[in-house]
Amino acid sequence: MPRAKKSTDRKIFVLDTSVILFEHNAIMNFEEHDVGLPITVLEELDQFKKGNDTKNFEAREFTRLLDKLAKDKSLQDWIPLNGKTRGSFKVVMEAGSGENQVDANRVFGEKKNDHRILNAALRLKDENPDRKVILVSKDINLRMKAKSMGLPAEDYETGKIKNVDSLRKGKIEIEKVDSDLINHLYEDGTLSPKEVLKRKKAQPNQYFILKSDKNSVLAYYNSMDETIEKVDKRPISGIKPRNAEQTFAIHAVMNPEVKLVTIQGVAGTGKTLLTLAGALEQRREFKQIYLARPIVPLSNKDIGYLPGDIKSKLNPYMEPLWDNLKFIQNQYRETDKEFKAITEMVNKEKLLITPLAYIRGRSLSNIFFIVDEAQNLTPHEIKTIITRAGENTKIVFTGDIHQIDTPYLDSQSNGLSYLIDRVKDHPLYAHITLEKGERSELANLANEML
């Protein structure tokens, strides 16, 4: 967006609490436009300052940022944001003294913080009749309320993927390949990309299903060696791949040159199971295996509502991960060394199943780190996790970008979609989308028809 030449061209964006909790430095991302912060937002952020969750971190960081920007200035005055191309910000009181200002509390018949935020935005609109005032919120209901009162409202777009359908699938089917080339790949294990792709350029670690009239082969592009290499079906920890995509997922998880993997797919496609099986297969290569997932409480209630101690509270959220581990372990007899090895890993905490909040802040060196349900993370959370990676650490994110359990994320703004879009061309990264459910015919029916 070009820099505005007139003050009337500059808009005023009013931020909701959900935007700050999504990204603490959001006020720096509105270019030359000004930013209004309702006083209610500061009150709500005060309730989030304690705790170890990401939203608590975001609240604390925003408070520090605000304090740094304000210094000895009054927050009720427009304060310049850092940088010559940015606008200013101020804290806005709930309502003005004008007789004509609409009261959201009266309109909606209830006193709520959301309505106080609306009133603050309406006040700015009355005080600045020559400028466009826009409410920015991750809360779709609040945006609808704003629009119903004639106040423009938008989602916070930074980091949002415009077209989810265009996200990399990780594999391409190429038909009418010369059968002699496929035979050559079977015999030698490698091909020149030009022989298969002609003038097209392959992405690093791109997977292929090459088909001729007579035969077919699974392959991937090794960007390090600049070759197309054959991918073999292989069982890991007693788990056999049931389709081509699962074979590719296993290859990505087992490839020592790939340090970051994303596996996307609907329920029952085997994302977590295959990743955990791959981690167990490589257990001697890493000091520990961490299997973590974000806690998204049911009905958006805190886990404190659940009975028992902290372990009892967390067990319901971790149970799906234990189910996958038990499934792998049950591929063996109790007398088998593989069965005993898994039990010993759990007892000695070489394999640790834990909430994601318990991992934050740790240095992840020599770790195989699996993050399940990654679609419930924000882009900032994804970045925070990856920046913790030390030497000899591999991170695998699994999830379904269409199955969001948090109220302020969607298929376009969640961290998993963001990651798939941003790192698609890096040689350390591999991605595969699992499309075929393998849990059961009944589960497939639900995914396809309900």
UniProtKB/TrEMBL annotation:
The keyword Nucleotide-binding applies. GO terms for cellular component: cytosol. Gene3D superfamilies: 5'-nuclease, P-loop containing nucleotide triphosphate hydrolases. Keywords: ATP-binding, Nucleotide-binding. Coiled coil: none annotated. The keyword Cell wall biogenesis/degradation does not apply. Residues 11-144 form the PIN domain. Transmembrane segments: none annotated. SUPFAM superfamilies: P-loop containing nucleoside triphosphate hydrolases, PIN domain-like. GO terms for molecular function: ATP binding. Belongs to the PhoH family. In the N-terminal section; belongs to the PINc/VapC protein family. PANTHER family: PIN DOMAIN-CONTAINING PROTEIN, PROTEIN PHOH. This is PhoH-like ATPase. It comes from Roseivirga pacifica. The lineage of its organism: Bacteria, Pseudomonadati, Bacteroidota, Cytophagia, Cytophagales.
